């Protein structure tokens, strides 16, 4: 294999088949991520537009609607649940606290709308399973928003592993850290630090899921056992077990992964896949930082460093994610990552937290 093959057209959308069309979105939850990342990404997309916004108050919904040229209607959560304005959108993007995903996805399913739900899919395995069941019962498309799966360099990593560019995969090292109280909100009372809203914890649920799911995608493998250690130090993290965390996974292809995550550390992320004949390194990754470089190193000297030139990586990833979803929904094509795929992550997250609490290896089931 020539590494030069992978230097060309790295930003090409290898998944795109749709040529025209538009999928109208209702944005459910108008926090900073929806307003500053998701809505601008939809505006920049080829096949999507935001026509409805949904928030806790009429005032907030109307304020956000007034700032968007495509939004026709602002709704409260109750109005959405009651089925108002269902003729004004085709799909929903759910970006509320984790424990609120289920009711809004259930309502969307009842309204017959396609669902793009933020990760993690819910706060617990049981609620996530109910969410999957609701979408299946209503026969509506469900995708969980793992934006790394449409990142062109992550997809190239998957292709290189599949083609045997680094031999057989042996190990994955994944890392993601941020200063949550600076990056997300300075309020220590925010929902990510409330177990009733976030789920099992604050760090592995929010950050560790990135290397977990991206490793699954790149390897095309699923975790079967996990170990973990975690602790919290600062008063702001008193109600969650994982201000800082590390966990390991054994996959069903016998590859191992070692991952670290923290909500109170330097903003950085990396993903390394080590094989019998080389390695792939992508960094910085997960946090939208640029330049993001993919390094390919092989035992026979076929090395390359790939910088695809992106400088607004969040926007690129989010726009691709929405267009991918639209491509699949408008063509009535199968979607990945779907609810069943995301349910494996929820089972792995549950196992990781139980492993940390027990100090033992836990099976993912």
Structure explained in plain terms:
This protein is of the alpha/beta class and 365 residues long. The chain has two domains: 3-146, Rossmann fold (3-Layer(aba) Sandwich), CATH 3.40.50; 148-311 and 338-363, 2-Layer Sandwich (Dihydrodipicolinate Reductase, domain 2), CATH 3.30.360.10. The protein has eleven helices and 15 strands. The strands form two sheets. It has a nine-stranded mixed beta sheet. Strands 3-2-1-4-5-6 form a six-stranded parallel beta sheet, with helices on both faces. Strand 9 (244-251) and strand 10 form a beta hairpin. Helix 6 (152-162) crosses helix 9. The longest helix is centred in the last third of the chain and has 20 residues, at 339-358. The relative contact order is 0.17. The mean pLDDT is 95.
